[in-house]
Write a structure and sequence with these properties.
- The protein is mainly beta and about 500 residues long.
- Helix content is about 5%, strand content about 45%.
- The protein has a five-stranded antiparallel beta sheet, with no helix packed on it.
- The longest helix is centred in the last third of the chain and has 31 residues.
- The protein is elongated, with a radius of gyration of 47 Å.
Amino acid sequence: MSLTAAMRAYVVFLLLIQVVQGQYNWGVTYTSSDICAPEGSAVVLSCSYKHPSMTNGQQLTVQESFWYKVKYGASGDLMTDSEYRGRVTYRCQEKTCNLTITDLRQSDSAQYKFRFTTNQPGGTYTGYPGVTLTVTDLKVQVEAVSTQAKLECTSSCHVTDNLSYVWLKNGQKLSEKSSSLTVPANISRYSCAVGGHEVHRSPEVCEFTSYAPKPLNVSVNPSGEVLEGDAVTLTCSSDANPAANYSWYKKTGKPDPKPGPQLVFSSIQPSDSGEYFCRAENSLGETPSEDICMDVKYAPKDPSVSSDSSAEIMEESSVTLTCSSDANPVANFTWYKKNKDSDSQPFSKGAQLVFSSIQSSDSGEFYCEAENQLGKRRSEPFILDVKYAPKVPLVSSDSSAEIVEESSVTLTCSSDANPVANFTWYKKNKDSDSQPFSKGAQLVFSSIQSSDSGEFYCEAENQLGKRRSEPFILDVKVMKSRHSLTTMNIFRLILVLLVLIPLCFLILTVW
């Protein structure tokens, strides 16, 4: 079979996964999300995409489209990557684009994504989550049958029967091209490879005896830090004869083995963190692997604020606010107090905000921000409502000049308190205790009289206490115009008397 035929034969189509990126008919669909292939073979990664024909009244066209390998943040066209020179071809037509990679190597194991760019500003779209390719090496499994041995060329991937193989005995090619080979049980060295790619041959075998699984080899793809949402594949392999069966286990929780040499996470989550191991087993025994620790990193989840006080918060009490957020790595916390007139500024650092003797001025809206190197999130506002008895009340008058009789005068009592205070007015009596004079924050005299003069004070009260103001002296002046009129009348009366008395005396004398 030719190399081209082998490439056509080894195309793995898995569950169709449709991922739409953006809105309004923008999208990318991958034919498969995970592909496994043996070293030396070929694969085809396939996708289709869509976009509107018009946007903002202009014809929309695709300017560029390509596949790229996700590695170290790079996203360049795979055709220009020196690692793939001569091994990569595209077949793109009618909004489909197929990527063919030949002569597969284990270093090709990675996640691949498709991207297209339109003639509109910012019109670049990338398919998600992409296709995860796992390339495994070949190995020869041996089943001894009397004086003959049956050899099987295998990998940890599911391989189609039509793939062409090459067998080598003591380094020399044999004519057999199937995946199995029956040979005399003598001492010869055998290995296998995919047809046309003998450079990627399996390790040689020369002993045709049965044996339990040897120590296992476990790999993680991709290697390095694992982030939430990544596609991750754990692969387990072991030398065994007869061939081993594999199962994966998570050490925490109830035993729930997953059969197969691979454990695939298409979009790994924080709940998948933990220790995993695989077990290889055949009729001669079983062998467990070393533990693999999966530590999934993720940005902080929604932070929440809690208080150590479940009752009302009283002034001068001790109060601690705690900010919590699930994050990996562990988040750092910053506290903010909301300002009405300006942007909030950092108020404090750390998971806890402690008020050893809280004051009324500490009342307000607080929120915390959780941050690690993967992102940051803010909590909902937490209202800190400090309760306190009234402060010393102050009395003010709406009149800044002298208070004149019959004028309108309003006295106002004010006091900072939480809950809001109720007010009572008192007028000081010299001969007895002061009695309540009026209720309410204001004391109104619509036509004040001189009899209203005196010392007034107000009392502010809520359920936490009460306080009295300093006395306010109300000094009502009699109107000057009225006082002058009375003096004039007296003066006129005296003049009249001075005139009338002599006149009367004269009249009496004449009589």
